[in-house]
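Troubleshooting: if your tokenizer reports a length mismatch, compare your output against this known-good record of 464 residues.
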Amino acid sequence: MKIIIHDSTFDSWRTHARSLLEEKIHFDDIVWQASSGGSFFDHVDVSDRKKSSALNIPREFIEEAQFVSAFRDESTWNLLYKLAYRIVYFDRNLMSMALDNDVLDFQRRMKLVSRDLHKMKAFVRFREIKKDDESIYMAWHRPDHRVLKFSAPFFTDRFNGMNWAIFTEEESMSWINNKLEFGPGISQREAEAFDSTEELWKTYYASIFNPGRVKIKMMKSELPVRHWKTLPEAELIDQLIAEAPARLDAFYESQRPSALQWVPKEATLSELRAALPNCSACVNCSRATAPVFGEGPETARIVFVGEQPGNEEDLNGSPFIGPAGQLLMEALEIAGILRSEVYLTNAVKSFKWKDQNGFRKHVNPTASDIAACRPWLKSELDIVRPHILVCLGASAAQSVFGKMMKVGDSHGKVFQTSFSDKTIILSHPSAILRMPNPEEKERLFNQFVGDIVALKDLSDQLIQ
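Known-good structure output:
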């Protein structure tokens, strides 16, 4: 096998590749290797080769090959020569064969170099260095491939009016007094000695950071962790990611409709009840007959939170008096719990409905409805401070927990929340009413009664 010693520049590769092609040296007879010294032909004897009279390589291939030569893998030189040889001696239209393995490899390397060039344009950070009342802006970058020279048109156009230099480990590029020059590179440690204005970048980055679009996997894909050290703002990434959930919650709370401005501070239950009709946090308030506040003693040991008032509750102004409420009262009676001993309320205070042939049909509240009414429920629970808090259905659970909870997965489990150490999620009794099969309806009711009996037992244990 013939060995070619190569100094890893495209111009020298092109010159000597042309000579080798003219000698018809097959690509399998060549291995290109990088070296800081030596001649291209140190290990090749081509003196007895018969030269070809004509080489006709498409200009487009030469231009793309120069770009692909930036790919940081010495096998690239073998690939470029192999493609050139096949174009000259087998098929001038080779590069149009999209399924050819060599062409596919060429296109893959071109894509990766293009992506690395894009990253360089996006993530180079200049630092101002002042000397003798003059400024020069310095940057250090670690590209994956040899893309520095290909970035020159972008940087000379974008930063034409200032003097700057960009360094990599292998080479550097400077624009001083409108003159572009290339030189040797420097290590990152040497680059860290630059005076900097990093705090400006950090302040800017923190201000534009969007916690709602945090995708760690994508961040690392677009900007691998090994590049983070070259970016001043990268020091903030871990902190900003950690703070993202809280910042996102704060943002959502600021955007949602909320009853908070209508809820009197440090009020009693009576004062809250009196203030509720003035609330206009959502459209449900204006469509309902009247909002329905909770009922029961302030000293209640058990609090039941339902979804929202129904038609009967809306017309009469009391919670849990409609069909679903009657089922709850029946279960309480069987368990030996009096209505007057518990506190009954809803996550949403006003009846949400739509007209259906002259009747007001119940409509499930949205997450926005639940969030808007949550300050009322929070104020009630902060006053009552129940030993046992029961969420009847998903809407009640979402209001209490502040997030979606699957009733089926959480049914009967005891959770600790800010409102009660014994917070339990049960199915809403309306689910029993919707069951068309009589046997299944009876089974669900018996299960519901069993859940209420278990609550009574738990309450009695807490008293002891």
